[in-house]
Amino acid sequence: MRDLSHDRSLLSINSMTVKPWSLEQLVEGCTRAGISAISPWRDIVQACGVERAARLIRDHNLTVTGLCRGGMFTASDAAGRRAALDDNRRAVDEAGAIDARCLILVVGGLPKGSRDIGDARKQVRDALAELLPHARQAGVPLAIEPLHPMFAADRACVNTLAQANDLCDELGAGAGVAVDVYHVWWDPELKREIARAGRNILAYHVNDWLVPTTDLLLDRGMMGDGVIDLRAIRAMVEAAGYRGHCEVEILSAGNWWKRDPDEVLRICLERHQRVV
Amino acid sequence: MRDLSHDRSLLSINSMTVKPWSLEQLVEGCTRAGISAISPWRDIVQACGVERAARLIRDHNLTVTGLCRGGMFTASDAAGRRAALDDNRRAVDEAGAIDARCLILVVGGLPKGSRDIGDARKQVRDALAELLPHARQAGVPLAIEPLHPMFAADRACVNTLAQANDLCDELGAGAGVAVDVYHVWWDPELKREIARAGRNILAYHVNDWLVPTTDLLLDRGMMGDGVIDLRAIRAMVEAAGYRGHCEVEILSAGNWWKRDPDEVLRICLERHQRVV
Questions:
Q1: Distance (Å) from the C-alpha of residue B213 to the closest C-alpha of chain A?
Q2: Is the pLDDT of residue B1 over 60?
Q3: Which residues of chain B does A112 touch, with a Cβ-Cβ cutoff of 8 Å?
Q4: Is B275 helix (H, G, I), strand (E, B) or coil?
Q5: Burial class (CB in 10 A: 0-12, 13-18, 19+), B191
Q6: Cis status of the peptide bond prior to A69, with omega within 30 of 0
Q7: What average pLDDT does the structure give for chain A?
Q8: Cα–Cα dist A110/A108, whole Å
């Protein structure tokens, strides 16, 4: 088997990892560093302008491993859910315009005032079913990303890969999963559920879990600086048939966001070779 | 069915909820408030002296719903694991001395320098099997407490009730589970696994998940202040056959630990009646 871990052509940089950068800077910075794939968040794509972003990416011959992010489907009333769906259709279109391999979905947590996580999960399923025809038509696969259970209340009520796989089973073609080691590394069923996900794995995100972790959202580590057995999880996704990129997504207000993004990219490259 | 939620005789106070208090103060404060059950941590029992603690608790006619905590079984070498087991045997003896209904176990996370969570989980299983004969002899049930996945690295590698139930199946008599809403509320399999735990539920801990949560360890909420559907989970444990206490365990450095403990108890009583 081709040793993916030493192949820089399979490294992708999520724009959150170099948050100070605009899309233009991300495109140029990655090109400078010899990195050929990116995964931008919608804010920087929109700031650039979708058409211009698409041209810029094409001109630099970059692969877009995903557009981050759609989702946030849950709401306390029908108008809120409709607005979320409309926004997600636009996200699908944006993903299509920049030729993203998938639209990453952070599905949403409990609506304001709700304690009913079962209902939130039903809302997510219903919204996905409603969004899917548009996504299929646009040729943009939807990547359901299970988020760590510590985000169940405020970000995503899909918290295990098993749940995401169940959704894929129910939804059929056009729905897949994004596996982010940060969210799933602790899962006792990880190996089984990665194998089950199989060809439905649309994206693979890497970073690390720091000990201690000082902030629930913004204290992710660089690969190798934490306790996640990256090589073991990499072997699981490869055994499941995944041949795509390793996308580095590090939300780190206290450390990596403060550094020179060019330096961050150099370290991503080095760690990708050494520990991912 | 008896409506347990309005019965103050089934309210128990974990000493962490009123952290400024010594065991003596906890005993007297609960008695003053008309609360008849406590669950102390080992530090305050040891500070009081185990014999004296036992007498004090007996004299005040208090139920001890659990001793917190044994566990922390994982270590990077055999000597470390032996020391942990020795300490756990002492914890069992202390639990026996104060007539605790169970010894609560926080099983331990990754040993220092390890990234192998599978190995940590094996260490836990082996340690439990080794501790169990002593616990059976002492008549102290071991309550395996699954901890929220955000503690997988540094506190407990048993992170779902399913895992704890699997361990109970393997270990047999003398092993049970502690269900703490804080750790399990997000679990898509919660209802099924609580039903499966059934009579193995040795303790039921209540508190709440705040949005936002500002600290992984020390920002738990008072029941009713967060997003956990306490009544729904209570119904699950009752349907599983649990007829024991609701034990309030709130680790809250920024709020509840700063308040007058007598006031905290009054609020616990009120919330126990109204929302638990």
A1: 8
A2: no
A3: none
A4: coil
A5: middle
A6: yes
A7: 97
A8: 7
Cross-chain CB nearest to B148 (options A116, A149, A229)? A149
pTM for the whole structure:
0.97
Q: Judging by beta carbons within 10 Å of its beta carbon (0-12, 13-18, 19+), is residue B136 exposed, middle or buried?
A: middle
CB distance A229–B159 less than 8 Å?
no
Q: Who among A185, A211, A232 is closest to B154 (CB)?
A: A211
* Strands, E assignment, A216-257: 246-248
First to last CA, chain B: 16
* Residue from the list B116, B162, B186 with its beta carbon closest to the beta carbon of A149: B186
Q: Judge whether B162 is closer than 8 Å to chain A, CB to CB.
A: yes
In B, minimum Cα distance to A150 occurs at B150
In this complex, do B216 and A211 lie within 8 Å of one another by their Cβ atoms?
A: no
Kindly state the tokens that stand for B85: 């087991």
Question: How many CB atoms sit inside 10 A of residue B3's CB?
Answer: 7
A160 CB contacts (<8 Å, ≥6 apart)? A146, A149, A184, A187, A189, A193, B188
Task: Give the closest of B110, B226, B228 to A227, CB-based.
Answer: B110
Closest residue of chain A to B216, computed from CA coordinates: A216
Helix H or strand E segment including A71: strand A67-71
pLDDT-derived band at A260, boundaries 50, 70, 90: very high
pLDDT at B107 over 80: yes
Q: Give the separation between CA A72 and CA A69, rounded to whole angstroms.
A: 9
Sheet holding B37-39, edge to edge: B63-64, B37-39, B11-14, B246-248, B201-206, B175-180, B142-144, B103-106, B67-71
Angstrom CA distances, A263 to A17, A223, A258, A267, stand at 11, 15, 11, 6
